[in-house]
Amino acid sequence: MVPRLFTALVFGVALLLLPGCGNDGRLRSAVQQVAPRGASAVSCGYAGGLVESRSYRCDFRVRAGRTTAALAIARALARQGFAVSCQEGDALSNDGVDVNSFRRDLRVVAHVVPQRGSTLAVVVYADDASPLWQSLVGDEPGCDPIRVAHLGTAPCISGWNSNARATRLTKRLASRPKVLVRGGRGACSFYFRSRHGLVIVFAAWHGERLVVASQRTLDRWEDTERRIYARNPGARARPDGTLSPQPATG
Hints:
Strand order of the largest sheet: 1-2-6-5-4-3
Strand content: 35-45%
Order of helices and strands: HHEEHEEEEHHHHEEEEHEE
Radius of gyration: 23 Å
Shape: elongated
Distance between the termini: 75 Å
Number of domains: 2
Helix content: 25-40%
């Protein structure tokens, strides 16, 4: 009797772990339904399931604009009844877009990260949505197209270059070519090494236009901001006051 019960138990567990069965099928379906159109899968697979919660992940490559791809994923999730939010991602370049979502106890997250040229790396995974995750997504801003387009550093550089006051500031402040640019939550900050020390210029998006709001010179004891400037690659200030995304480390 006992061997039969054990055999049935093992068979039941194995059946649940087969792709397409039980929770595994739900996770895989959730990921596949939001894959960007025209994307090619680099790798897909399951993880966890014993101690950690079960998850399914796919890595894609697609030729598309990051805003277009992120919004397509967000809309696909919303059509399926998911609560969705969009945030800046990709901590190294600050130019990625994270699409976060949940529907009841199911979480789906997509990381949209620019690569060389017009290629994007898109990582989509599905797993359990904890109550904390649901609360975080509910408190975050949504995926308004204009807001998503302004996430990250690339829009900050473009907005700066189209603002005459901003380009004049570049010529006045930049004693070195490196300008560190950081973007997020509807605003941008620009770190300039001037003749009088490190200066941060703050700007905010007003619709489609980036408007310079304020600036300040760092005090001597503000070591954290100096380390941020020193340890991260920056844009390059051009002689005409515009900024180039080309990395400048000096």
